Sequence to fold (405 residues):
Amino acid sequence: DRSKQGTKTTKMSRISNRKISVCCRHHPDSISWEKAESGVEEPVLGSVDLENDNLDLYNHPRYRRAMILQELANRSSNEDILKFETPSQAASNLDIYRKIHTARLVDFLSSAWELWDDIGPEGQDSMCNGGGGKETSSPALIPGHTPLLRESFQRPSKNVMGQIGFFCTDTCTPVFGAMLEELLWDGAVIEQAVATLQENPSVVAYALGTHPGHHSAEDSFGGYCYVNHSALAAKLLQERNGYSKVAILDVDYHCGNGTASIYYQDPSVLVVSIHCHPDWEYPFHSGFSEEIGDAEGFGATLHLPIMPGTTWETYSKALQTALAKIQDFGAQALVVSLGLDTYLGDPCAVRRAGFNLEGDDYTHMGKAVGSANLPTIVVQEGGYKMDSVPKAATDFLIGICSTDQ
Fold:
């Protein structure tokens, strides 16, 4: 029982002999590689994975996952702190996400592709065509109308083309044929990470799924996110591992608006998000500093919006503010939403603003987070500069395990 472990403490020496457990659907040895025309070794993706990775200009999550795995594998020969764990099977359904999402959202994500595909080309509105379809029987499904702020009396229709407009907040997060299977594996990865931490709380469990999740709220999804993995990890750490107070630290370039929304009235989960100011960047209408929680959760949300062009000098100060809040909260365990679109030149970020973190900044970030001395799950979120993301992710993880102060 860890219910009494949440009292404030002074800064302790780092957890010794800390290891990283990489929880992923794939093992590095299962990935085939080939040399591209540029001379760079790149993963060989199957035709379906390749088509799905090309549904968006910036978001290529299967490629990102493979590249991070390869970097971790390469570094594991020099860093005796890495091991790889693969879930034995995918989850049988998405029901575990009902702990943090509404039943109707989970039902939609579980059935949407089948409903869309059953309509067939004769009935599929061209406005809902999200591209692809060469490797599957139907193209991807996107909203055919702009979702507006819902009224309390509204509900989704029975037509899947209407349902996606009700639940989805944008047109860049499509429903596609392999989506459900990938989300089932992502759920298994989160459960694996929680189980790993239960067995050994000193391990840093890295949940490397396919899809990010921090923009997915209780009853909506968007921003490349379908279900909220970090929010689920926090809930499972409470229910299965006995931590009554859990902190979620979101270091993605974009605000973790979905995560904050899910726990906005919950005093047992602190959500801290460091992100580009919403006056400049997505999700625009969420992530302002005055959003600090509501009802019993008042004070358990901390948004730290910072300006475009931020370097490590400024970012590190925000991070120290975040870590001080986590210590003051009395957190017993930590979930880190690791977005790497903070990197200098990230193509998804620089189209509107962008940060200027680079190189050793991610080692320093990991060391700072490691100084919290908490059982930690790191959940992979975004990051779109593919020649920099793998090293940044690995540097961050190894930084957590550093014994340097």
Observations:
- Residues 1-12 have pLDDT under 50 and may be disordered.
- The CA atoms of residues 143 and 165 lie 5 Å apart.
